[in-house]
Amino acid sequence: xxxxxxxxxxxxxxxxxxxxxxxxxxxxxxxxxxxxxxxxxxxxxxxxxxxxxxxxxxxxxxxxxxxxxxxxxxxxxxxxxxxxxxxxxxxxxxxxxxxxxxxxxxxxxxxxxxxxxxxxxxxxxxxxxxxxxxxxxxxxxxxxxxx
Length: 147
Hints:
This protein is of the alpha+beta class. The chain has two domains: about 10-60; about 70-145, ACT domain (Alpha-Beta Plaits). The chain contains five helices and four strands. It has helices at about 15-30, 35-45, 50-55, 80-90, 125-135, and strands at about 70-75, 95-100, 110-115, 140-145. The chain has a four-stranded antiparallel β-sheet, with helices on one face. The radius of gyration is 18 Å and the shape is elongated. The N and C termini lie close together (about 10 Å). The relative contact order is 0.17.
C-alpha cells in the first residue's frame, strides 16, 4: 500500500452510481466482453471523463485481494454444527482458514473471529461474505481487515 493513501472497504449500496458504473466498465474490459473503453462506457452509461477520473481507484474487492488475509468478526448462535456451516462456506469458496477464535458464549451467542487467506482459486470475496452471512445462526457479520 502506498504511503499517504488510505483504502476503505465500502458496501456497494453506499457508493454513488458513477463509482458503481466505473467498476462495471473495468469489469467489462478485464473480462474481454468489450475491447474498447468507449464501447464499455456507452454500455454502462457514463462519460469518458468520469471513467478516467476514477478508473484506477474503484474496483470490486475480489479483483485486488488475492493473496490477502481477510478477517471476519461475527456473532453466532451457540448451536452444534453452526460453526461447521461457516467453515463449509469458506471451503466451498476455496479460501484457506488461517485462524478461528470463539469467545465463551453469553446468552447463547458466541463472538467468532475468523481469518481466511484468499487464494487465486477463491471465489469472489463478496460471494464468500454472502455465504457466511447466510449460514444458520449468524446474527452479525463484518469484515474487520483485509491485509
